[in-house]
Write a structure and sequence with these properties.
Elements (H helix, E strand, L loop, with lengths): L5 H8 L2 E5 L7 H10 L4 E7 L18 E5 L5 E5 L3 H9 L9 E8 L11 H11 L3 E7 L9 H16 L6 E7 L10 E3 L4 E3 L3 E6 L5 E6 L4 E3 L5 H6 L3 E7 L8 H6 L9
Parallel strand pairs: 1-2, 1-5, 2-4, 5-6, 6-7, 8-13
Antiparallel strand pairs: 3-4, 7-13, 9-12, 10-11
The structure holds manganese (II) ion.
The site of manganese (II) ion has 7 residues, from β5.
């Protein structure tokens, strides 16, 4: 981590950071992240009480949203919520945490959030929720499902990035999606700013029969196929770089507006 002079350090320590994730409040990645962020600011944890991976941007509207104080693995106190990662951000930013939050960090996720993963990702959605509320935010993931991961490089990178965000405004309606390869620090080539790539899951549907004779389905598939175009997140990771993708909340396909207009949609009579 970069050295900062004492005055800058005092300023940084006034920074309030909210952490959430989608792997659950007791996940290892969250604790590694907190240990590094504790060095640069006041850290508050509000995270799901259980794993909620791939829950996307869902929110809880039709049942009570709860948040219980729990002892984290480092002995400090955080909040465990029955809600989704996005709910946790809302809880943290809308008043349950009484301090104003400067930066929201979501992660460190156990597994990649690359390409089209973003639309499924609870980790990224939590950062989106913060961006919607106008708070600087990033999601961070280590791109491996190996049972034992070294979260150290990702955690240290997160602290350096959070420090940077103390001094730079995030562009409007934008969040950052960070992926860190699961490599020893000496083998990580560096950091690149990327665009969102493409990764296709084969999307298999397996039909099975339960013991009662009823059909059920199992949604799965093999390893995703990455389209290794230069400049994308999937490419950067495959080459051993840390990937930082600025993600915009505006999902409009601007380049398609004229084409879709040209179909004559406006002429459909609405009766
Ligand atoms: Mn996850």
């Amino acid at each position: 981590m970069q050295k900062v002079d004492p005055i800058a350090r005092a300023k940084l320590l006034t920074m309030n950071i909210l952490i959430t994730n989608d792997d659950g409040v007791h996940a290892e990645g969250l604790i590694f992240l907190k240990a590094e962020l504790d060095k640069i600011g006041r850290v508050f944890v509000v995270a799901p009480d259980r794993p909620r991976s791939a829950c996307g941007h869902s929110i809880t509207l039709h049942k009570p949203l709860r948040a219980e104080k729990v002892a984290l693995r480092d002995g400090s106190v955080g909040y465990a919520s029955n809600g989704t990662p996005s709910d946790c951000v809302s809880l943290g930013l809308l008043g349950m945490i009484e301090e104003p939050i400067d930066v929201v960090v979501s992660g460190i996720n156990h597994g990649p959030n690359l390409g089209w993963d973003l639309t499924y990702s609870g980790t990224v959605s939590a950062a989106m929720e913060a961006a919607i509320m106008g708070v600087r935010a990033f999601a961070i993931s280590v791109t491996s499902y190996a049972p034992r991961l070294d979260y150290g490089p990702a955690a240290r990178f997160a602290a350096a990035l959070a420090q940077m965000l103390a001094e730079h405004d995030m562009p409007e309606s934008t969040l950052l999606n960070v992926n860190v390869p699961d490599l020893p620090p000496s083998q990580i080539k560096g950091v690149v700013v990327t665009r969102q790539g493409k990764r296709r899951y084969s999307g298999q549907l397996e039909k099975r029969t339960d013991p009662m004779g009823r059909d059920y389905y199992w949604l799965g598939g093999d390893q995703p196929t990455d389209s290794l175009e230069e400049g994308t997140d999937v490419y950067a990771i495959s080459e051993g770089w840390v990937s930082v993708t600025p993600v915009h909340l505006d999902l409009t396909a601007y380049s398609s507006i004229d084409e879709v207009r040209s179909w004559g949609i406006q002429g459909i009579r609405v009766e």
